[in-house]
Design brief:
CATH class: Alpha Beta
Strand order of the largest sheet: 1-2-4-3-5-10-6-9
Shape: globular
Protein name: M14 family metallocarboxypeptidase
Number of helices: 8
Radius of gyration: 19 Å
Cofactor: Zn(2+)
CATH topology: Aminopeptidase
Largest sheet: 8 strands, mixed
Keywords: Hydrolase, Metal-binding, Zinc
Family: Belongs to the peptidase M14 family.
CATH superfamily: Zn peptidases
């Protein structure tokens, strides 16, 4: 892991950012990859097998980003609904490509068992910048609530609103990276005028359950499937993962709705957030993508059999 910087280069320690610092931060963000060629093209390639929907369009300066979702063709109102989301944090690459891999390789198994709704890249501006925030220095994954300040979050909530009570399972695909500790957590502390306390990055896959409605057997079914593809993160010396108590092997809990997390946007019985570690010497990008796709498969199979 890289050495954590002693201070963040924008702002004054102890003072929250004003619009001046936010603009300074934005000026440092450079486009590093293409949403159109890496994501949109793959979604369009699936159009022969699924219904594609543009559920919103982001406008940031002179840039436009269509927000695209993949739906089961011949949607049946009598079937349960499964929701898959990825790329809420644009830099978490396997969340995006794992969702696309699931759609391409596995989603065809469920036409008579479930309606699938897949939003592979919720935050395309951040995908291109390999960043956690949107251009307003807002974290979409802390912004899933009424009157959200993040248009990425608001658009996804509008998409899901008509079926919110019909969703049986929602899996949200994420990563925990070394840059969480070297860039994104220091930036968050600087933005909010708070001290940065260095932490650790777990080496391996883990899940985040909903502390308000835990489903331990569901979580362990996903862990068991993913472990065949990549390794599970161990607890640290305090029996924690990223500061939260480990409630079962590879599982921690958050109050999803209270934190405004993506996995809180439906009333699904089964909810989970995956966390893959792409910087591990024991995992390749292909393994990370496959781990995400396998996690979705295991979550769907468990849900439909219970």
């Amino acid at each position: 892991m890289n050495t954590t910087p002693a201070f963040y280069p924008i702002g004054t320690p102890g003072t929250p950012w004003s619009n001046v610092e936010r603009a300074q931060w934005l000026s440092r963000q450079a486009r590093r990859r293409s949403y159109e060629s890496e994501v949109v093209s793959k979604i369009k390639h699936l159009g022969g097998r699924f219904d594609l929907e543009e559920y919103g369009r982001l406008e940031y300066g002179d840039e436009r980003f269509p927000l695209l979702a993949i739906r089961s063709r011949n949607w049946k109102d009598n079937l349960p609904v499964v929701l898959v989301t990825g790329g809420v944090h644009g830099y978490e690459t396997s969340g995006v490509h794992g969702a696309l891999q699931f759609a391409d390789q596995y989603a065809g198994k469920y036409p008579d068992r479930a309606n699938l709704l897949i939003a592979p890249c919720v935050s395309p501006w951040a995908y291109e910048r390999i960043h956690r925030w949107n251009p307003n220095a807002i974290d979409p994954n802390r912004s899933f609530y009424e009157n959200s300040p993040a248009e990425e979050s608001a658009a996804l909530m509008r998409l899901v609103a008509p079926i919110r009570d019909r969703v049986l399972m929602h899996i949200d695909l994420h990563e925990t990276t070394d840059t969480d500790e070297t860039e994104f957590r220091p930036a968050l502390a600087a933005r909010d005028g708070k001290p940065f306390t260095p932490g650790g990055i777990p080496d391996g896959f883990y899940l985040v359950d909903d502390s308000e409605n835990p489903q331990p057997e569901f979580q362990q079914a996903v862990i068991a499937a993913v472990e065949k593809v990549t390794h599970v993160a161990p607890a640290d010396d305090n029996n924690e993962i990223i500061g939260s108590p480990v409630v079962a092997r590879g599982v921690i809990e958050y109050p999803l709705k209270q934190l405004g997390l993506c996995a809180s946007i439906t009333n699904a019985r089964y909810k989970t957030t995956t966390e893959v570690y792409p910087d591990s010497p024991r995992a390749t990008p292909e393994q990370c993508n496959t781990a995400q796709a396998v996690a979705v498969c295991a979550a769907v199979e468990y849900t439909l059999s219970h």
